[in-house]
Amino acid sequence: MKIAVLGGDGYCGWATALYLSSRGHSVAIVDNFVRRLWDHELGVETLTPIRPLSERVRVWEELTGRTMEVFSGDVMDYDFVASTIQTFRPDAVIHFAEQRSAPYSMIDRKHAVFTQMNNVVGTLNLLFALREFSPDCHLVKLGTMGEYGTPNIDIEEGYITIEHNGRKDTLPYPKQPGSFYHLSKVHDSHNIMFACKIWGLRATDLNQGVVYGTITDETEMDERLVNRFDYDEVFGTVLNRFCVQAALGHPLTVYGRGGQTRGFLDIRDTVRCVELSCLHPAAPGECRVFNQFTEQFSVLDLAHMVQAAGKKLGMTVKIDHLPSPRVEAQEHYYNARHSKLVDLGLTPHLLSDSLLDSLIAVAVKYRERIDSSVFLPQVFWRESRNVRTRQTPVAAGAVRP
Ligand code: NAD
Ligand code: USQ
Predict the structure, then answer these.
(1) Is-catalytic flag, 311?
(2) CA-CA distance, 30 to 38, in Å (whole number)?
(3) Closest ligand by atom to 146 CA
(4) Residue nearest to ligand 2 atom 16, measured at CA
(5) Which position among 19, 173, 181, 212 bears the catalytic label?
(6) Given this model, what pLDDT does residue 391 score?
(7) Which ligand is nearest to the CA of 4?
(8) What pLDDT does residue 397 have?
(9) Are strands 26-31 and 202-208 parallel, antiparallel or unpaired?
(10) Maximum separation of any 2 CA atoms in the chain, in Å
(11) For the chain, what are the domain ranges?
(12) How far is the CA of 266 from the centre of ligand 2 (A)?
């Protein structure tokens, strides 16, 4: 298939682009590198020393003989999106190209507005470009499990059948997102659903859980293909952060009681889920939703698992319960369905001792690059002024081809 990977220079996107290319698909990466600028804005760096995209792609092409096109530009720029779709003519577009950090979106008004503009406008541009130039192309859009929040009933995959006053209907599952970032995904979902309904576009909304890991078969092939591994308080996700904290002997930063339960998946399953979605496209006019995670854990479960893995490696790992910077339930019911991708053929990589060992090993390997000053939370949901408010978000559009 011809597959465009929007956000292909990022964490999920880079691993996905390489995987799809290795599977024989013809891949184009679309990115404006704004994620690298957000690191500069925040004064943080990925644990792993990632190379410029041009070098990454050159190394991949030399090693495998497979070509990969690059379109550098901003999905907020409609002309750029439209010309990319017309030039590449993809069978499927995978849309990862958004601002994906909940804390970043909660820094202040500027960062909230920026996040929602970047994400909602980028997706709208894509929907209009697909309608105009490629209405049969399948949109595979990354959403988030966080769209649902933590309701006191089972979470379904996108839709729920409700009986009310003697009548019955299947409706979008209620949304209770927990940050302005998560809200942007809800807005996207509504826009995508509406575009499928009125224009007959085909879309798959992948409500992904928290991703962990950094290694895939393809990134392992050469040090210069290494993927990013964020561990700072803004972009680092919880399990990746805990492994880096353990490697440095820093107490694990559990927010509050740690009963917050989420869906998780290995990055090797992210890439497979995306391919499965492309290989089994939605029908014209269909907007289907898959819950993309493989297991659920509470934050405290994860801390105990990392503590045990560290102990086996001879490390002493302490667990701290910090006052939560977020507004979220710290103990709650959580039971989310996630069978649709398994039905399509996903065989999950479950979180194992060996995987935890390898994650900690990556952190140990790059230990000298760890900056422990970015471990503690600095963005607080209830504060109107955060430490980081003096920063202005690096606008998408700052980097143009
Ligand atoms: P990332 O920040 O590492 O990558 C996103 C990429 O998109 C970056 O390379 C960035 O430069 C690019 N981008 C952002 N805005 C752009 C714009 N306006 N124009 C062009 N390029 C732009 O993020 P990630 O962790 O790879 O996440 C990818 C997607 O998956 C996001 O939509 C995110 O919401 C979703 N997701 C991620 C996780 C996770 O745990 N990482 C979990 C669930 C869902
Ligand atoms: N947490 C801690 N300690 C930490 C970091 C986080 O206890 O040091 C807690 C948070 O309070 C939260 C949970 O761990 O309850 C998950 O936090 P996270 O930062 O790992 O993930 P989150 O903010 O939810 O966002 C990440 C990605 C986002 C994606 C989302 C999937 O950054 O792009 O949408 O995971 S989901 O969580 O299913 O919404």
Answers:
(1) no
(2) 17
(3) 2
(4) 238
(5) 181
(6) 64
(7) 1
(8) 44
(9) unpaired
(10) 64
(11) 2-374
(12) 14
Domain covering 2-374 in this structure, CATH number: 3.40.50.720
Structure tokens at 66: 């497979």
- Nearest in space to 378 (alpha carbons), one of 127, 3, 44: 44
**Of 238, 277, 221, 275, nearest in space to 359 by CA:** 238
pLDDT digits (tens, 9 = 90+) for 298-349: 999 999 999 999 999 999 999 999 999 999 999 999 999 999 999 999 999 9
In whole angstroms, give the CA distance from residue 304 to residue 252: 10
Could you give the count of Cα atoms lying within 13 Å of 177 in the half-sphere of its Cβ? 19
Are the C-beta atoms of residues 386 and 378 closer than 8 Å to each other?
yes
Phi, psi of 123 (to 5 degrees): -70, -40
**Distance between CA 360 and CA 373 in Å, rounded?**
19
Q: Judge whether 38 and 104 are in contact, CB under 8 Å.
A: yes
CB atoms within 10 A of CB 222: 14
Nearest by Cα to 375 from 254, 210, 215:
254
370-401 burial, b at 16+ Cβ within 10 Å, e below that, comes to beeebbebbbbbeeeebebeebebbebbebee
Place of tokens 């909940």: 102
Instruction: Name the helix (H) or strand (E) containing 82.
Output: helix 78-88
